[in-house]
Amino acid sequence: MPVRIANVTFDCENTLATARFWSAAFGRPLDPDPTEFFASIGLTEKDRDGTPSVFFILVPEKKTVKNRTHLDLDSGGDRETEIARLVGLGAKRGADHDEFGHSWTVMNDPEGNEFCIS
């Protein structure tokens, strides 16, 4: 049997703030009893549809370089509206790109983690 993604994990300087941002971004509630050391989304959902859980773990070091891996998010066809919503939640907008017939915008979550939205 091939592997599947079980969890996506974010190392965090501020676990709760980062978890709250992504909870609002995904429209998925935080799991009960988050702490400053660990929070999660989807770990306790009973009937998961194959969507990975998202973990947020406190680490002592700050982010210093570009992510080697990042999330690519689908806006559902209204990228500008979704970008505005995410900026309202605390994200920062980066550069717009249009290559190989695909358009996307690079963004940063409140901790500086890069993600893309198309």
From TrEMBL:
Q: Which Pfam families has this protein been placed in? A: Glyoxalase_6
Q: Which residues form the Glyoxalase-like domain?
A: 8-117
Q: What is this protein called?
A: VOC family protein
Organism in which the protein naturally occurs: Actinomadura rugatobispora
